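hi support,

uploading two proteins for the ticket. first:
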Amino acid sequence: MKYLAQTVVVLTVIAAPVVAFAQTNGPVTREQVRSDLIQLEQAGYHVGDGDNANYPADIQAAEARVSAQNGGTSYGGVVSGTSQSGAPMATPGLQPVYFGQ
């Protein structure tokens, strides 16, 4: 019985990633990929122009324009918001660990 339980646990662990990454929208055909690429090119993004300096921003802007043309349903897009990194947290009344050295 112990061997059976171990086998079930091992098979469950092996099968978990397959279930976790399963897509429900089916395979994408070559024509769908080609039409998506044509829409992105018409929106101003050109794949082989060699200018990769603004790559993420350029394709996200093109995807946003395509999404606006298609009624707002698309993948990807531009994320708005801000982030701050590297600034010390302001906590009044607390001193740093190395205060006075």
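and the second one:
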Amino acid sequence: MTDTFETPADPRTDRPGPPDLARPYEVIVVGGGAAGLSAALVLGRARRRTLVVDAGEPRNAPSPHMQGYLTRDGMPPAEFLALGRAEVAHYDDVDQLKDRAVDITRNDGPTTGTRNHGATTGTATATATGFTVTLESGRTASARRLIITTGLKDQLPPLPGLAARFGKDVLHCPYCHGWEVRDRAFGVLATSALSVHQALMVTQWSPDVTFFLHTVDETELSDQDLRRLAAAGVKVVPGEVAEVLTADDGPTGVRLTGVRLADGTVHDREVLFTAPRPVPRTGLLERLGARLTETPFGAYAEVDPTGLTSVPGVYAAGNAMGFGEQVPHAVSGGYRAAAALNGELLMTDLDTKITT
């Protein structure tokens, strides 16, 4: 993996070579998506020596655009991240590294972070536990505090043709994509009985919705579920879906045309919604001993209102702390965690001065 990301040309982003990992950081942000970059921006503006480590695998990469974020509605996710990296690069105290964090260990005893603000150099020492992050490249970096923003991975049902259309006309979030596909023929592929909620929600964007039960037995649906589906005009189709069908229209490209059931029946559809199984990337948090909370959508780090986990000095933001953290929430969570962490470091250092 290379040491730097490509960002829009800007003379303020020029850096002489790769980051100096031998010099301890005050904060390491693991994950460079919306939450991680937001945290890094706040920390850079607070003059905290910070390292952002990112493997470059954002959850929303399959989508050609992101929606519902004020001033960024319709922007491609890759462009959003490139702009974010360029903004963060304006701050001299923040380094960005394209690499993967594969392990984190806690270091007992004081950890020292060196800060260089122009012509003034100072040293801040805290008695709190520090951390060492091991990277896939074999290098290590240390810091006084961590912000984990490793997100989650969407695991799609193993259905032929489904993954290739994900983010295009196979979708999971109507708030993210519903407006763009409004009034088309929708299908909803059930992944559990909870998919009833998805089938009902998408009727706000189309009056033509077919709910494919797939591997869900109709007896798993409650009477209230069935009454609501009927009231919303949703057609319920039992039977397992065997294949997602597509057609190549030449200049306009490939498009979804429907689904084929295991019995050979074909149902014409233009859009297919489904709920992937979310797989939280919480391995690093678990190695640190962070408490996780089980939810219907996976296990996520327990955090307080600032994003602080059960491990002192470790914060979480974005999908590392919850399934429903979309881009606007992730940006907010990263900002909140960084501001709280900065204040905590400041008070820790002041208290250390008082007692020494």
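thanks. also noticed: Residues 110-128 have pLDDT under 50 and may be disordered.
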